[in-house]
Design a protein that fits this description.
heterotrimer; A mainly alpha (about 375); B alpha/beta (about 400); C mainly alpha (about 290); B: about 400 residues; alpha/beta; Rossmann fold; 2 domains; seven-stranded mixed sheet; six-stranded mixed sheet; about 45% helix; C: about 290 residues; mainly alpha; two-stranded antiparallel ribbon; 11 helices; about 5% strand
């Protein structure tokens, strides 16, 4: 019995290794043919970045039970820090063409990886300050307060008083992009990996205890506020990095990018993937981002046999998307993955289960996944 | 665990790749009759918003390009006739979406890109086009940042500093001594144009009595306008999107403000007249083109031809300035391709630097930044619920 | 700043505050009973604006207003039925996400149906009549808004304290389970609450948009959030609190803009929220309960 289990573990490890190799091969192929597949690459990069932010939101919402809606704000902080630190010095005069650049940051420049770390640290620092008042609040109040903070951050960035630092209304451009695909995906994978390690550590178990029952967790002698604060800071750290990555992806940013809608997009990914599942968030990020592009045909007039189908016009795609979200919330509140994680064994069961599901569908309801 | 993670990523990646493969081949091509000519095809990208806050303007600009494609469906390269195929993408007036849309054009291997309406998205896409060595010709993006530091971006319209100066000149010429400026926070077009107007107006001896800002999506301008009313300026310069324009106009008149209200090119849109009604009378704007004053034969032919085209497309028969600019940007692209004698992006970029055409918005050639050398703007006013040509001005 | 300007600004602030107060009551009622931030409330308010545009296109204004009120109430009730009722026993986070989802759906639906371009709001002639008093200039609706707000609040308080359904509402908001045990039909009370909330949103919408003249798909989202803050500020569950919160917010915002800090006018709302939650978590007039915050 033990032997077969061992065999299976080895088999799964081999599968994983194979999958890793396939990924690298695909990335290598895309890198070599990057001009031909630039569209697909840009969608994949964006998905990967959203995955980082979605996982960091999940860390807070799914694993600690804190419903925060401040993602866009922390992303804005990260994005602006990375932009300010990496725009080539010689191009700064033309970027800050209206009001000039403040001398304090005019010659400040560092490599992108350092800028990303600083971005994360600043976001974490601001989260630490913010957490002191905000984390005393519960559920809906916390959500609305973080949402408010995110709006305040956006207002401050766009404020004319800060023109010489954030370039106020004019946004920042000439941000250097990713040197190659491996860096882009490697960074995203690294961030997600770090969060996975955290969730599987003893801290992760504390977070889950808080999610399940705050009072019980407190009775166990856990310092609630300290751990909530910690989860909030760590999540904001990675959200900040995610924002920085987004800045490198977009290469020009302004405050409007980081509106409430960005937070809602991330929330959609987390809910769709399953609150409390990291694989779910990653899957969700790729599905939602690719799906949005894929569903573009909803926005174009559709002709079948020369007759225009009346529903298909600009804006229909987003309606379909929001209905999808409602359906998931109302009928499949567990999302794609519930709070399970991906495993080869699970995949095996799923594949084997497919024929059964088809035959049993008529007799039983559903929900055997 | 790490492997597992990577795996999940692979799964998702391959799934989405699968999804993408389905749609990548079906780039929307369009418009006009592109069936004539030989087998040789050259692709021109149309990078415009057809949805989002600038969806309306983007569509008008695209109509101009489609019409130009219909009029000039082929181009001769090295003695061979090529059919021009337009590849249209929607950048949704959103910077993040613009990146994907621009990449889509790159992977479609277009030779030249036209657009976009809205400077923000053009700036976002500029670096992508430059990296891919594809020249882009902006039609109505007036922000200086679009072409600055980017060898591959050109444009056929004038710039915000010019437009701001023109409006300031107009104000001074009409004996307006005091001005108030209203700009939108976080909007580069509005803030930029406002600040250029302010500088020019003060340099010409005018006095700026009030400078106000408002938030995106703000609908209540009474507090701002009450402040302005207290200063009683001769002119209120309020460059902003067409969403906010009717609000500012109506609320100002309601508060009993009698100053002239002026703005930039975005306000040349009939929804403003529709929404602001009688209050819109007397609003002054600057724009790129006027159908009553054809600059040359090309323009005269365009005006009659395009009106029919608009009718066929169920649009109002008033030629929007952005359509004329869209038409001109296409002409420039064709001229440069012929001059370069190649479909290669870098060659076309170099050719663009020396191109000179007689477009419908006047003669166009490019300076060292890639901006059209234009020294004239049209000033229009709203009279009897229609835009009426007032005068042309140049910078002194 | 001259005295006339000051008065004019006060008038703007009070009128804005009146509209805010009407929407804030909707939040307070729903939150008091369901403990749910009805994120869609702001969008119901926006949809009421669009309904008015279509109603006025073919009907005289006095009939149009009635139609709009009825349709908006129906919209509010059906949202409760479809999106909130199935989740009655689900975790609070799911209900909130559902509320955000409804708000997202309404905004996208409005964009799809009516395009993102602003639509002009129809004018009701007598409301738009402009009055000039000394240096002050404002339309009739500006003066009318605070008056209507106060009348509505009086009617509502009477309803809650003097009628049977009002008593049921108070009971449900005090203790959900006990109320159910006492034989109160919870679902009926909740439906009624949503109906009242939506009715007020519709009235607020008519007053707000008549004064501001255009509607677009996102015109409800920010006022919605602000009014929630107003409700929290006044003490969630308390109607006079919501009204005072609304007026404070309207006046404060106008004052900030008037002093030239429009950048921070939105931020002000949220700073106010955080400050009140720290100092007096139950709001100005909130009841002292242990598990609300």
């Amino acid at each position: 019995m033990k032997n077969t289990k061992n065999n299976r573990t080895i088999k799964y490890k081999l599968y994983s290794l194979g999958a890793l190799l396939v990924t690298l091969l695909i990335l290598g192929f895309l890198q070599v043919n990057s001009s031909q597949y630039s569209y697909q690459i840009s969608i994949l990069e964006r998905s990967a970045i959203y995955a980082v932010v979605a996982v960091s939101m999940n860390l807070l919402t799914g694993f600690t039970g804190l419903f925060s809606l401040g993602q866009a704000g922390f992303m804005a902080i990260g994005a602006y820090i990375v932009a300010i630190l990496t725009i080539p010095v010689e191009q700064r005069a033309s970027v800050y063409y209206v009001n000039g650049i403040s001398p304090a940051i005019a010659n400040l420049q560092c490599p992108f990886w350092l800028a990303l770390i600083i971005a994360g640290l600043v976001a974490a620092g601001i989260a630490a300050l913010m957490g002191i008042p905000v984390l005393r609040l519960k559920s809906d109040y916390l959500a609305i307060a973080t949402l408010g903070f995110s709006e305040i951050i956006r207002a401050v960035i766009a404020a004319p008083q800060l023109d010489r630092i954030t370039n106020g209304s004019y946004g920042l451009k000439s941000i250097p992009g990713f040197p190659n695909l491996f860096v882009a995906f490697g960074l995203c994978a690294l961030c997600i990996l770090l969060m996975v390690l955290l969730i599987n550590s003893s801290y992760g178990r504390v977070f889950k205890a808080i999610r399940e029952d705050e009072i019980a967790a407190q009775a166990m002698g856990l310092n609630l506020f300290r751990y909530k604060q910690m989860a909030f800071i760590i999540s904001s750290f990675f959200t900040g990095i995610g924002g920085g990555l987004l800045a490198m992806f977009m290469r020009s940013i302004d405050s409007k990018t980081f509106s409430i809608n960005l937070t809602y997009d991330i929330l959609l990914i987390v809910v769709l993937g399953g609150i409390g599942s990291i694989t779910g968030s990653v899957l969700g990020a790729f599905l939602v981002t690719a799906g949005r592009e894929w569903l573009r045909f909803f926005d174009n007039p559709l002709y079948i046999g020369g007759i225009q189908i009346p529903l298909f016009r600009s804006g229909f795609r987003m309606v379909v998307f929001s209905i999808l979200l409602m359906v998931v919330v109302l009928f499949y509140s567990r999302g794609i993955m519930g709070n399970n994680e991906f495993s080869w064994a699970g995949l095996g069961r799923l594949v084997k289960g497919i024929p059964d599901r088809f035959t049993k569908k008529k007799q039983k309801g559903d929900n055997t996944l | 665990m790490k492997l597992r993670k990577v795996l999940a990523l692979t799964m998702a990646a391959s799934m989405s790749l699968g999804l993408l493969a389905g749609c990548s081949s079906s780039g929307s091509s369009s418009g006009g009759n592109s069936s004539t000519g030989g087998d040789k095809v050259i692709k021109i990208g149309v990078f415009e918003p057809t949805t989002g806050e600038n969806g309306g303007g983007g569509y008008q600009e695209m109509l101009g390009m489609r019409y130009a494609n219909q009029q000039h469906p082929t181009v001769t390269i090295g003695g061979e006739e090529y059919t021009v195929k337009l590849v249209e993408v929607d950048n949704k007036s959103d910077k993040t979406e613009a990146v994907n849309a621009a990449q889509k054009l790159v992977s479609e291997k277009v030779s030249v890109v036209l657009g976009s309406y809205g400077s923000g998205v053009s700036i976002a896409a500029g670096q992508i086009f430059a990296d891919a060595k594809i020249p882009a010709i902006g039609a109505s993006c007036t922000n200086p940042q679009v072409t600055q530091g980017n060898d591959y971006y050109f444009r056929v319209c004038f710039l915000d500093p010019f437009q701001g100066t023109v409006m300031a000149n107009y104000a001074i010429d009409n004996n307006m001594k005091t001005a108030a400026v209203i700009t939108q926070l976080g909007d580069d077009y509005s803030s930029g144009l406002g600040s250029f107007f302010k500088n020019a107006f003060q340099n010409h001896g005018g006095t700026l009595v009030s400078e106000e800002q408002f938030q995106t999506n703000q609908t209540d301008f009474k507090a701002i306008l009450t402040n302005i009313k207290a200063q009683n300026p001769d002119i209120i310069f309020a460059p902003s999107s067409i969403t906010t324009a009717p609000l500012i106009i109506k609320q100002a008149r309601e508060l009993g403000i009698t100053s002239v209200i002026a703005a930039g090119d975005t306000w040349e849109n009939s929804t403003i007249i529709e929404n602001a009604g009688a209050s819109a009378e007397g609003v002054v704007i600057s724009t790129f083109f006027d159908e009553a004053e054809p600059a040359n034969d090309e323009a005269a032919a365009f005006i009659t031809g395009f009106k029919t085209y608009l009718k066929d497309n169920k649009q109002e028969e008033i030629i929007p300035a952005v359509s004329a600019l869209g038409y001109d940007s296409y002409l420039c692209a064709i001229a440069a391709i012929e001059k370069a004698g190649s479909t290669d992006g870098t060659a076309i970029m170099e050719a663009l630097n020396g191109v000179s055409i007689d477009g419908v918005t006047g003669s166009i050639s490019f300076d060292e930044n890639g901006d059209a050398k234009k020294d004239m703007a049209f000033i229009k006013t709203i009279e009897n619920s229609a835009f009426k040509f007032l005068t042309t001005t140049t910078v002194k | 700043m001259s005295f006339t300007t000051f008065l004019q600004q006060c008038l703007t602030g009070i009128s804005l505050g009146g509209a805010y107060a009407l929407i804030a009551i909707g939040y307070t009622l729903v939150y008091g009973i369901l403990r749910l931030i009805n994120f869609a409330h702001g969008d119901i308010f926006m949809m009421a604006g669009y309904f008015m545009i279509f109603a006025m296109a073919s009907l005289p204004w006095y009939i149009a207003i009635v139609v709009v009120l009825i349709v908006t109430v129906l919209l509010g009730i059906s949202i409760e039925h479809v999106a909130y009722r199935p989740l009655r026993n689900a975790p609070r986070m799911s209900v909130m996400i559902s509320a955000i989802g409804v708000s997202y759906l309404l905004q996208n639906l409005a964009t799809y149906l009516f395009t993102a371009l602003p639509k002009g709001y129809p004018e009701i002639p007598f409301l738009k009549k402009i009055f000039q008093i000394g240096g002050l200039s404002a339309s009739f609706v500006t003066f009318l808004t605070p008056v209507i707000t106060l009348i509505v609040v009086y009617a509502l308080i009477t309803l809650i304290h003097k009628t049977k359904i009002g008593m049921a509402m108070r009971a449900v908001s005090k203790d959900y389970d006990t109320a159910a045990l006492m034989g109160i039909k919870i679902n009926r009370v909740i439906t009624f609450t949503f109906a009242v909330g939506s009715l007020l949103a519709a009235i607020g919408s008519i007053l707000y948009f008549t004064d501001r003249m255009t509607v677009f798909p996102f015109s409800g989202s920010l006022p919605g959030l602000k009014c929630f803050v107003a409700a929290v500020f006044g003490g969630i569950g308390s109607i006079p609190g919501a009204v005072i919160g609304g007026f404070i917010l309207g006046l404060g915002e106008t004052a900030l803009v008037a002093m030239g800090y429009s950048t921070f006018s939105d931020a002000f709302t949220f700073v106010l929220l955080i400050v009140i939650l720290l100092i007096k978590p139950t709001g100005l007039f909130g009841e002292k309960t242990t598990d609300k915050v």
